[in-house]
Amino acid sequence: MAQAAPPDIDPKAVFCNNELSLRDIEVYGFDFDYTLAIYTRGLHFLIYRLATHVLIDKYKYPKGLGELTYDPAFAVRGLHYDVHKGLLMKLDAFHKVQLGTVTRGHTQVPDSEVRQLYEGLHVTIDRLNNFYGYGAHMQQLVDMFSLPEIALLSDVAEHFIKNNIQYDADYLFNDVKSAVEFVHISGLMHQEIMKDLGKYVEKEAGLRTLLDRLKNAGKSIFLITNSGYAFVSKGMQYLLGDHWRDMFDIIVTKAGKPKFFSETGGHQVSGSSAPSMHRPFRYYDVEKRARTWNMVTKLEKGNIYAEGNIDHFKEMTGWVGSKVLYFGDHVYSDLADPAIRHGWRTGAIIPELEHEIKVMNSPTYKTTIVWLQALQTLIANMQDLQEDDPDAQQTIHRWKKEREELRQLTKELFNPRFGSIFRTYNNPTYFSRRLARFADVYTSSVDNVLAYNLKHTFYPQRSALPHELDYGTQRRLWYLVHGVPHATSKG
After folding, report:
1. Active-site pick, 8, 10, 24, 33
2. How many whole angstroms separate alpha carbon 273 and alpha carbon 252?
3. Quick one: three-class SS letters along 5-71?
4. I need a labelling partner for 309 at 20 to 30 A (CA). Which of 158, 264, 292, 444 fits?
5. Rounded to 5 degrees, what angle do the CA atoms 482, 485, 488 make?
6. Quick one: which of 425, 222, 184, 372 has its CA closest to 308?
């Protein structure tokens, strides 16, 4: 009898890393970019185009770069870039390089060269990025905005290589990074988006319904974003209407995350015994479009705030610990400190999740992964049993070759160069491991939460540890394949 294919996974489900009961949540917080506002693919084309012009006009890069075009299928987020070697790659949760994903420009680096460069496949902890994804040797390109940055970095390197232009990998990385940052901080990107919100922002029908449900249930709602008020307000008006501010109890713009969640010291709330802190909150005057110099001693609905820090936020609101659930898209800037340092519950918004699950639901992926797992079990169990049988060893060799072909196939179903953002063949990716550590739940869009009532508990799936696996079942599979009777008990 043919084995039934696994059931489809709902691409819009909320998935759980750590048990979370919405019954316990009294306060809901949100980031803006790629959380409340989901952007179309057109934004990546825009960032790529603007950053290319910055390289040419500001950094005097070759004018030929103006002919480059953005390839949205080039990369996936969560990749690492070796700043000194000029190599882009995917790492797994154990800091191991996934062979077949290391590229210089557009060219895949041979496995033998990768092994020589890294003295194997392991990237040592001192060469890896820090807590927030940055490092002198390696940097992780982790947010959605990094996709055009990755593509531009690789495209410029390819242009230099093809035209025999000598370049320093460190300078190239820093220049491209600075160009992309300039597109953000200069306001170039925001100005273009505000000219045509319909082109760049997806209008989620369920967003207002979700916020209304939370308000009607007596929940408090806040917004903490790194974007400026003018841009946020324009986007929110598009998404929620002119009276969008009425839906939020506290609104904080220009927050400067991750510093908002991590830095303390320097200012003290009047009458407080709490330690002094950096970056006190400032009022933002909507009419004057400027921050004021008045001291902020309490956070109130109706006001707009800028900057600030988490300790003042907790002290002024009383919103602390596990009664707060904060949603954001950036694993480090949005989720790491709230989860690790402050005990908030956290939800990650991963827009690519829907594409990944659609691939997993495809008949090709399902049949391939079932046979791949069976094949790997056969190889594991036969390799010692038939050690002295040349024919059996030849069969195992063919199986191993087929296994590699199947692994490559499943990788390319997600992305031809880099595969899934969640797996490097068997192992979780570095990105996936950080997601599991810093996010209690994750989903593709905040309005997916509408499918669950506000008393719902999300339970993680129990996954077997290696020592909990039933190796007896695996061994019986070998006997079944070879038609050998297998005694299940003595006597």
Report:
1. 33
2. 24
3. CCCCCCCCCCEECCCEEHHHCCEEEECCECCCEEECCHHHHHHHHHHHHHHHHCCCCCHHHHHCCCC
4. 444
5. 120
6. 222
| Side chain identity at residue 393, one-letter code | Q
Catalytic residue among 31, 92, 175, 329: 31
For 54, the token pair is 């910055």
- Per-position pLDDT tens, the chain of length 491: 445 667 899 999 999 999 999 999 999 999 999 999 999 999 999 999 999 999 999 999 999 999 999 999 999 999 999 999 999 999 999 999 999 999 999 999 999 999 999 999 999 888 886 776 667 789 999 988 999 999 999 999 999 999 999 999 999 999 999 999 999 999 999 999 999 999 999 998 899 999 999 999 999 999 999 999 999 999 999 999 999 999 999 999 999 999 999 876 444 444 444 444 468 999 999 999 989 988 999 999 999 999 999 999 999 999 999 999 999 999 999 999 999 999 999 999 999 999 999 999 999 999 999 999 999 988 888 887 667 788 888 888 999 999 999 999 999 999 999 999 999 988 999 999 999 999 999 999 999 999 999 999 999 988 877 777 665 555 555 555 555 554 444 43
Note if 10 is an active site residue.
no
0.85 exceeded by pTM = yes
Query: Would you say how long the chain is, in residues?
Result: 491
**C-beta contacts of 279-284 below 8 A and 24+ residues apart:** 279/307, 279/308, 279/309, 280/307, 280/308, 280/309, 280/312, 281/252, 281/305, 281/306, 281/307, 281/308, 281/309, 281/312, 281/313, 282/306, 282/307, 282/308, 284/229, 284/253, 284/254
Residue 312's SS3 state is: helix
Q: How far apart are CA 187 and CA 190, in angstroms?
A: 5
The answer to whether residues 90 and 419 touch, using CB atoms and an 8 Å cutoff, is yes
Tell me the Ramachandran region of residue 174: left when phi exceeds 0, alpha when psi lies from -120 to 50, beta otherwise: alpha
Whose structure tokens read 């006009």?
57
Q: What is the dihedral of CA 146, 309, 259, 143, to 10 degrees?
A: -20
Instruction: Provide the 8-state DSSP code for 435.
Output: H
Tokens of residue 431, six digits: 């990105």
Contacts of 88 (CB under 8 A, 6+ apart): 75, 79, 80, 81, 82, 102, 103, 104, 150, 153, 154
Would you state the structure tokens that stand for residue 346, as one six-digit string?
A: 């956290």
Closest residue by Cα to residue 326 from 212, 461, 446: 446
416 burial via Cβ count (<10 Å: 0-12, 13-18, 19+):
exposed
* Longest pairwise C-alpha distance within the chain: 90
Cβ distance 180 to 152 under 8 Å?
yes
Annotate 360-384 with DSSP letters as a single string.
HHSHHHHHHHHHHHHHHHHHHHHHH
- DSSP 8-state secondary structure symbol assigned to residue 256: -
Active site residue 31: yes
